[in-house]
Amino acid sequence: MNNLATALSLFRQRLMAPALATSARCYAVKPAAPAGKKKKLGKLGPIMEKKVIPVETDANKLVNYVCGSNYLKTGEDVKIKPDSEYPDWLWTLNTERIIPLEELDPNTKQYWRRLRKMALRRNNQLSKLKKF
């Protein structure tokens, strides 16, 4: 009986020895933050700082140029031309309201695109109502 007890105790010591050796965790040290400005971390990462965009206040420039049309670092904005320089169809574009489907001609692409878009929206709404 005594031999059996000593054998079991030796067996337990051998099983427990690796567990005791790995109980000390050796994680890498976190790198120190740079001495400069610290950014706050949100749920999705660092928060982006807002950029202040300059607003044009010169009335003469606002009347004669399309402000913001030049996205390059060099050059200038597009100069506004007289109305006679632009094509006639430009002045007939619909800028007031969306034309209802009933008023559109069924022989045009615009009609069928609108119809398809309405059907997709309807199907998406119906699929949201399904339980599974």
UniProtKB/TrEMBL annotation:
<dbReference type="Pfam" id="PF08561">
    <property type="entry name" value="Ribosomal_L37"/>
</dbReference>
<keyword id="KW-0496">Mitochondrion</keyword>
<dbReference type="GO" id="GO:0005762">
    <property type="term" value="C:mitochondrial large ribosomal subunit"/>
</dbReference>
<dbReference type="InterPro" id="IPR013870">
    <property type="entry name" value="Ribosomal_mL54"/>
</dbReference>
<keyword id="KW-0687">Ribonucleoprotein</keyword>
<keyword id="KW-0809">Transit peptide</keyword>
<comment type="similarity">
    <text>Belongs to the mitochondrion-specific ribosomal protein mL54 family.</text>
</comment>
<keyword id="KW-0689">Ribosomal protein</keyword>
<protein>
    <recommendedName>
        <fullName>Large ribosomal subunit protein mL54</fullName>
    </recommendedName>
</protein>
<dbReference type="GO" id="GO:0003735">
    <property type="term" value="F:structural constituent of ribosome"/>
</dbReference>
